[in-house]
Amino acid sequence: MDSPILSQLFRQLFRHPACQGLRQPPASLGRQTRSFLTRRTPNKRKSQDNGMLWTKRDDYPKNIDKEYWSYPTVTAKDLRNRRERPRQVKMLTREFIDDSLYNPHYGYFSKHATIFSPGEPFDFNHIEDGPAFHRLLGDRYTQFEDQLDAVNPDIARQLWHTPTELFRPYYGETIARYLVSNYKLTLYPYHDLIIYEMGAGNGTMMLNILDFIRDTDYEVYQRTKFKIIEISPALADLQYKNLTETLDAKGHRDHVEIINRSIFDWDTYVHSPCFFLALEVFDNFGHDAVRYDCRSELPQQGGVLIDADGEFHEYFNTQIDPVAARFLRVRQAASRRPFPSPLGSRALRSLRFAPSLRKVHSLPEYIPTRLMQFFDVLNQYFPAHRLVASDFSSLPDAVPGLNAPVVQTRYQRQTVPVTTPFVHQGYFDIFFPTDFNVIEDVYRAVTGKLTQVMTHEDFVHRWAYIEDTETRNGENPLLTWYKNASMLMTV
């Protein structure tokens, strides 16, 4: 692997219970992403047989031709009831990522997911400045994890934070103002205010939104229904617990429904107009890896073969499966602007035939095929929805490739990055940036709806009471954090 600490980590991983969450510890909070580092690009060798191109790992040069033709191709859904990590199979990249993150028995989010909660909300108006807030947040992180370790020590615990938790209740109130204003402009009084949230974490956003609506517009509150769609059983239980453990939250019980299922298993037609919240969920959707022949510019789709020893071998196939092929077609047809390519600009592509610059294949491009399928679900089952989505528009120091993910885990409260998404399932966070120019056009093509994209900072400026999160010297963490995030809304 990449460093001695990784060798120590993997010795721990193979005897340690499944990891418990994601996202960064406070030591890296200066930039609003999960913490990570760039690593070297692995050297590659190739072998070709009927369109299959495979990559030998430098430290494990094994020929996989025989295994490739004999091993079955499986999906994350095929493995859903499997308690052991698979061997002697091959999977498309998007299926491997879904299995690694969401398998109910060993997936990253499936058991003991730990989302940082700062306890009492921060009193920003009495904090000196941004660095003072950073130090205070670091102290809260340490206290939070010390309390967890006092009950259940865990050197591989995974923690993540969200703007909802850090800026509670102000961030939730910001979203609530947007929802109520648009509801009253277009739907009130003929329809109820129905809100779906996917990937709700602790349920804090739900509680903050319902508190705000109840306290500011009780008539709208009486007509509000909040429904969480949560794939993780552990998080669904936590959301229900937080909904019922305090007197204020108990008052919302009749307004809330928690649905423990994957959005990709949804089969209920919802005819009523509704708002659909997808806040920081696109980044963990499965992506397909596609690379291009530098001479013909034809795509090749990536996957991973897992051998009998549990080793991973990346391969590329010239036969593109229908989902990835459809995404490439839709993107090409729908894009209103030029989109990036791992082949580079048209002007530079002529150089690819120069002997000194000649490459056989491009670096991989990671395309958001699962996100396109999510848009299909919205279009088919929620035809009257309005999407409110936010996520990272860029991520520094990702693995090599275009739109490539950051892959990391956490060990002894330190972030450990790796160079590939093909890692021991369930122990690593794999998360991608979102190209909002591309996905806005894909969303429009799939749903036929009009959209608006803006930066996270612009959205907060428009809908937040920014005085609530201003420090004594005039700095405002709610504005300055998450600068590499954007919002997509249906209009």
From TrEMBL:
Top-rank taxon: Eukaryota
Gene Ontology cellular component list: mitochondrion
Keywords: Methyltransferase, Mitochondrion, Transferase
GO term, biological process aspect, one: methylation
Pfam families documented for this protein: Methyltransf_28
Catalytic activity: L-arginyl-[protein] + 2 S-adenosyl-L-methionine = N(omega),N(omega)'-dimethyl-L-arginyl-[protein] + 2 S-adenosyl-L-homocysteine + 2 H(+)
Top-level enzyme category: transferase
Broad class of the protein's primary localization: mitochondrion
Entry keyword Kinase: no
MF (Gene Ontology): protein-arginine omega-N symmetric methyltransferase activity
Keyword set includes Transferase: yes
EC number: 2.1.1.320
InterPro entries xref list: NDUFAF7, NDUFAF7_sf, SAM-dependent_MTases_sf
Cellular localization per UniProt: Mitochondrion
Function text: Arginine methyltransferase involved in the assembly or stability of mitochondrial NADH:ubiquinone oxidoreductase complex (complex I).
Stored PANTHER family: PROTEIN ARGININE METHYLTRANSFERASE NDUFAF7 HOMOLOG, MITOCHONDRIAL, PROTEIN ARGININE METHYLTRANSFERASE NDUFAF7, MITOCHONDRIAL
Family that this chain belongs to: Belongs to the NDUFAF7 family.
Annotated protein name in UniProt: Protein arginine methyltransferase NDUFAF7
Native organism: Penicillium capsulatum
Taxonomic lineage from the root: Eukaryota, Fungi, Dikarya, Ascomycota, Pezizomycotina
